Amino acid sequence: MTYLIIMAGLFILILLEKPFEKRTSGLIFLVSYLLLVAIYVIQTTFVEIVSNGLLMMMAVIVVFPLFVRLVQSSLRKRT
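-> structure tokens emitted (79 positions)
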């Protein structure tokens, strides 16, 4: 499930033209997303760092702002 959330976040990031207007928030999101991907790869390949539930919660927290941006941009395009 965590993998699906991470991949959905990646596809939403690709789908959005400008995911974040401010540069600092975009950099913070990018660093947190890359850190999440790194933790996921280390966890599934080498050793368990955090529990699977915590990793899925982190994925939801990181991907949720992208989902909100996607919904906002789709609502703006309709009006």
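The chain has three helices and no strands.
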